[in-house]
Design brief:
- There is one protein chain.
- About 80% of the residues lie in helices and about 0% in strands.
- Helix 12 (about 210-240) packs antiparallel against helix 16 (about 320-330).
- By secondary structure, the chain is an all-alpha fold.
- It starts with 8 loop residues before the first helix and ends in an 18-residue tail after the last helix.
- The chain has helices at about 10-30, 35-40, 45-75, 75-95, 100-115, 115-125, 130-140, 145-160, 165-185, 195-200, 205-210, 210-240, 245-275, 280-295, 305-315, 320-330, 335-365, 365-370, 375-380.
């Protein structure tokens, strides 16, 4: 293996998380611009939603491609290139006066932001030993709720007070700082050369070796349905069905995001303690089914709020477990693509949740909608390849 400086693994985690959070703030900015675009600029909800979806589409289309890039050239270069693309796109989006141009630059920024997905995941798998990896990945998985929460706190108020351009400058500056930090501090994890990897069989396509990755991808797509159901409809349910004020409901939803993030860390630590990712993931799937079913059946009772909190925490706990397992199974020369495929499948499944679950709620009520999605984690349980798991996965580092 080539000689490298040995940085603090925790510093590497923080740097990679900062890059991912910056990219997620950019992704989260677009949906929070909808009130300004629709109510102040006069765009239809369809047009405003189309603009808001542009960065998400850009991310979804390039996750696997970025994974391949990370596998080939490493984490530092990939994340730096991606963040540079996001930075340039965000500044261009802030300066353009065309809505078409805005959508195009948001799309391009979403493409760049996808780089941090696989790169940050590989940093965790590469620098942390197997018995600390689940905990570290759980911390890394906090990036999404933290990024979305930061965007929620800053972007809508800034857009309302200072306008669209100023609001877009915030993620532009944040991504620029993250780019500089990544270039200056990020160090690629140690891994064998391609010649050494070939001799050890690490270049073999893991999707052809066995069916574990396919099964984990499929299970994760099913498990994302209850997660996005709660995320999408918790706020409007509290306001419309429980009569809560918007501010109070928003605070509760934000607090639930934080609890969910901590739940991911706890699940990762649990997996380290028991030496398994997929066993805890299957337990989480059972708990997700039970919590959504209970929430649906008791939606009209005083217990519903507590059950919403429980369901919100439980349904996100599998994310880090699956992501870590996919990276470990993929190995040092396939983990980028495997993590890209993992998130691509989840993006596709989550995109179907708002309209389909919304139709169910419109026709039969929130109780039915919440209870109905319990079928998805039930279907995921037998797909999780617990028996085929190797508790000591191939590490990226010696």
């Amino acid at each position: 293996m080539s000689e490298q400086r040995m940085p603090s693994r925790w510093l590497m985690l923080v740097v990679s998380m900062f890059g991912q959070i910056a990219g997620i703030v950019f992704l989260g900015t677009a949906p929070f611009l909808i009130p300004l675009l629709h109510l102040q600029r006069g765009l239809s909800l369809f047009d405003a939603g189309l603009i808001a979806s542009a960065p998400l589409v850009g991310t979804m289309l390039t996750l696997i491609a970025w994974g391949a890039v990370v596998d080939r050239i490493g984490e530092r270069k990939s994340m730096s290139i991606g963040l540079a693309l996001v930075t340039v796109s965000a500044f261009c989006a802030a300066l353009t006066t065309s809505y078409v141009g805005l959508a195009i630059f948001l799309f391009l920024g979403g493409m760049g932001g996808a780089s941090a997905n696989s790169a940050s995941g590989r940093v965790v798998v590469g620098w942390f030993p197997a018995d600390r990896r689940g905990f570290a990945m759980g911390i890394r998985q906090m990036s999404q709720p933290l990024g979305v929460g930061l965007a929620a706190l800053i972007i809508p108020v800034t857009a309302e007070e200072y306008g669209l351009q100023t609001a877009l400058l915030i993620p532009a500056v944040l991504c620029a700082v993250a780019f500089v930090v990544s270039v200056a501090l990020l160090v690629d994890p140690l891994r064998e050369t391609r010649q050494e990897a070939a001799a050890l069989g690490h270049l073999v396509n893991p999707y052809r070796r066995d069916g574990r990755l396919w099964r984990i991808h499929a299970a994760s797509m099913l498990l994302i349905v209850p997660q996005f159901t709660v995320w999408t409809y918790a706020l409007v349910w509290l306001i419309s069905e429980k009569g809560w004020a918007t501010v109070a409901a928003s605070v509760v939803v934000a607090a639930i995001q934080v609890l969910g993030a901590l739940g991911r860390v706890a699940a990762g630590h649990w997996s380290d303690r028991v030496g398994s990712r997929l066993g805890p993931m299957r337990t989480v799937a059972v708990a997700a089914a039970l919590s959504m079913l209970a929430l649906g059946l008791l939606e009209g009772t005083p217990l519903a709020i507590a059950l919403l909190v429980v369901a919100s925490v439980v349904t996100v706990a599998d994310n880090g477990l699956a992501f870590t397992s996919v990276a470990e199974i993929g190995g040092p020369y396939w983990s980028g693509r495997a993590m890209g495929a993992q998130n691509t499948g989840q993006f596709l499944a989550s995109a179907a949740v708002p309209p389909l679950v919304g139709a169910a709620i419109t026709g039969y009520g929130y109780g039915f909608g919440f209870a109905a999605v319990a079928i998805f984690p039930i279907l995921a349980i037998p797909l999780i390849p617990v028996r085929g798991e190797r508790t000591t996965q191939t590490p990226n580092r010696p």
